[in-house]
Amino acid sequence: MPSPPSAPSFSLGKDPTAAILSESTAAGKGSLLSQNGSEERDESGNEASSHPSLIKARPNTSRTKPPNSKWRRYLSTVKWFLLDQWFVVALGCLILISPQVQVPGSQQSKKELVVTYLCVSVIFIVTGCTLPTRVLVENYARWKVHLFVQGQSFLMTSAIVYAVVSLCATNRNFLDPGLMVGMIFTGCVPTTISSNVVMTKKAHGNQALTVVQSTLGNFLGPFLTPLLIEMYIQSGAWYTQILPRTRAGGFGELYQRVFMQLGLSIFLPLVVGQIIQNIFPKPTKKIFIDWKINKIGSLSLLIIIWQTFDQAFQSGAFRSLKGVNMVFIVFISNVYYAIWMSICVLLSLPWLQKKDTIAVAYCVPAKTPAMGVPLSVVMFSGLSTLTKSKIQIPMVIFQGFQIAAGSLMTLVFRRWIRPGEEREDAEKAQHGNGVTKSG
What we know:
Layout: H1 16-28, H2 30-36, H3 57-63, H4 69-84, H5 86-97, H6 108-130, H7 133-140, H8 143-168, H9 177-188, H10 194-202, H11 207-233, H12 252-279, H13 281-290, H14 296-314, H15 323-348, H16 354-363, H17 369-379, H18 385-438
Helix pairs in contact: 5-14, 6-12, 6-14, 7-11, 8-9, 8-11, 9-11, 9-18, 10-11, 10-18, 11-12, 11-16, 12-13, 14-18, 15-16, 15-18, 16-18, 17-18
């Protein structure tokens, strides 16, 4: 028996009579619709039921629209990168501005004094307000880690630099002697403080361990750095002939400057921040964590870096060098940082946790020109301004690169440590649920 005809379907909000007439009209004009690829509409402008021959035509019509999802993903990725790595973008802008406009030479000492004390104090008062006291004390007691980090920061880095300088010295026309001495200074100075603390926190590493190792390294620096420099230049290589035969030997001024800065701009703000945190824990957490006021530490670090480059460009040191020499210093700075970080990370993995490894990775390769620049003046009296500037250039260039590379490495470290953090969060949530149920 022939199957009964299917009942016409009625859409909500339409006149049934109009729907039946529309279906019959569409059936009668099937061939015309196949040619035009258009859909018949009723008098009210609503779409009527389509002919079966048009079912395959609809997907083709949608494919003709240009897909925007790929561009949206690309733009969202660029936006995320700019927001996450705003520090690197701002650093690049500051470096580009520094050659164009500098603070007058008569005001350089005042600028250095204000920036050195004020900005570093801001960074460490923020650190003191956000770092638990118990964690800070526990990390000060880890003497094995102290030996591990400081040994690499002073001995391993300086030995590698001296090997590279010895290779460069085989050709007297290859590199300026002032730059060679500056490279030795770069390898012997201690780690930096401000950028290490900011970057370790951004990479989700052990910020307390970074604070301990950075302050300890800068405490040892005035004693160990001059000894290492003297040891390496005692070889009597030709590039050391630019140095005076008699050493200044007056380290009292250097010790006074370094320890006064450590006390006033690091330890005092750190203690004040710890006191504020323990007396007012809830307001402190709300202001620095919830309101994200701790971002001011990154802004202070940018000002410190700008101060260094402003001083270097104002002295005119960069204009006195060959382009080939500058390219080599930039290249070898990349090599130094990559080798030092790779060695310290590989040596840390067998016995340190991931958070501790991240802290070590920022402390060991980093170098501070804040001690190297004045040390070059104190150790060698009678040097010309141009020679002093050449000695300081490798330290200044390395600082800029280490900040940029360290900021980009936060992406790698955060991705590396994320599974462990998610596991810890899940365990804490599960423990919290268990306590709630038992209560």
